[in-house]
Input
Amino acid sequence: ISANSRFIAEAYLMVGLHYASQEKFAESVVNLTYANEADPKLANVYVALADVKMTEISPGVAGVATYIQKRDSVLAEAVQLADTALTINPNLTSAYLTKAKALFFSDKIQESIAVLNSGKNVVQNDITLGVNEKKTLKGIIDTTIITYSQSLTVN
Output
């Protein structure tokens, strides 16, 4: 991949994220797909695609009927996209969080918590992160683990 391809992919990624923030999900997916085509090794694109696709079908956005109809296939795809991101970059914390969210909403809560714990271990051992970054990321992961664990006691 040339530097130019990476630049193009990152530009499409930014445009895709912009559209997602405006809830223009179809446009977001198109741009994220272009980013993936420009540089299939840009792990953040896979995470962004997974997040956009999950948000796009959420009951508050698409309605309950659409959510029920598309839930299983979209969540399975989100897990697959997060796994691809982790294959490319096993230190990508956002991929662990996205995969865990998809598993959680697939009612695979224990598996989701295990993924979060793996992400927490990655953060702990990541020498590229500063102390404050580690503390912030571990706090996010710990809070998510607590939230997901509480749903086990409710069910």
Q: What stands out?
A: The first helix runs from residue 3 to 21. Helices lie at 3-21, 25-38, 43-56, 59-62, 64-88, 93-105, 109-125, 131-154.
